[in-house]
């Protein structure tokens, strides 16, 4: 089980309370698909993903990016049991969708960049450390079925 400090809990709650899900989610997923083009293979039914402009303007990318952030809400609300929170989602992504678990880490890195840009100077090293710890726990939990 992961131990969370009061600062980490407060920081994670603050970041998510300030986050514009419909902006950050699509931007993070689009960045992931652009920077790591091999991740596009999981989104073949999303239509035109031929270039950065097409990806950024794709409504299915935007919708799924928002869905991802709302999925992270579950972890924020269940920080003491993130692994159990994501058991079903982990099975879906590993056994049905066959998503490479490394892609969760790539997406979390892109999300960190987008959140840092949105928060600006408020995204201090301490805030980043708490956010990345949170994302690392989520990524590990999502990848649990692969081990």
Instruction: Tell me what the CATH architecture is.
Output: Orthogonal Bundle
CATH class: Mainly Alpha
Q: Tell me the name of the CATH homologous superfamily.
A: Globins
> Would you give the CATH topology?
Globin-like
Integer-rounded radius of gyration: 15 Å
What's the number of extended β-strand segments? 0
Main sheet record: none
Total of helices: 8
Percent of residues in β-strands: under 5%
Number of domains: 1
What is the H/E order?
HHHHHHHH
Overall body shape: globular
N-to-C span:
17 Å
Structural class: mainly alpha
User: Helix share of residues?
Assistant: 55-70%
Description:
The chain has 147 residues and is mostly helical. It has a single domain, classed as Globin-like. Helices cover 69% and strands 0% of the residues. It has eight helices and no strands. The protein has helices at residues 6-18, 21-35, 52-56, 59-77, 82-85, 87-96, 102-119, 125-142. α2 packs across α4 (59-77). The longest helix has 19 residues, at 59-77. It is globular, with a radius of gyration of 15 Å. The relative contact order is 0.18. The model has no long low-confidence stretch (mean pLDDT 86). GO terms for molecular function: haptoglobin binding; heme binding; metal ion binding; organic acid binding; oxygen binding; oxygen carrier activity; peroxidase activity. It comes from Perca flavescens. Residues 3-147 form the Globin domain.
């Amino acid at each position: 089980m992961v131990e969370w400090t009061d600062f980490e809990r407060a920081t994670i709650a603050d970041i998510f309370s300030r986050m514009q899900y419909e902006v950050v989610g699509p931007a993070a997923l689009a960045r992931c698909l652009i920077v790591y083009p091999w991740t596009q293979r999981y989104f073949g039914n999303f239509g035109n993903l031929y270039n950065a402009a097409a990806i950024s303007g794709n409504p299915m990318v935007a919708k799924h990016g928002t869905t991802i952030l709302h999925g992270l809400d579950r972890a924020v609300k269940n920080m003491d049991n993130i692994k159990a929170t994501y058991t079903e989602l982990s099975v879906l992504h590993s056994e049905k969708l066959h998503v490479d678990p490394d892609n969760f880490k790539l997406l979390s890195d892109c999300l960190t960049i987008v959140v840092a840009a949105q928060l600006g100077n408020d995204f201090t090293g301490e805030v980043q450390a708490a956010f990345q710890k949170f994302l690392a726990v989520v990524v590990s939990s999502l990848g649990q079925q692969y081990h």
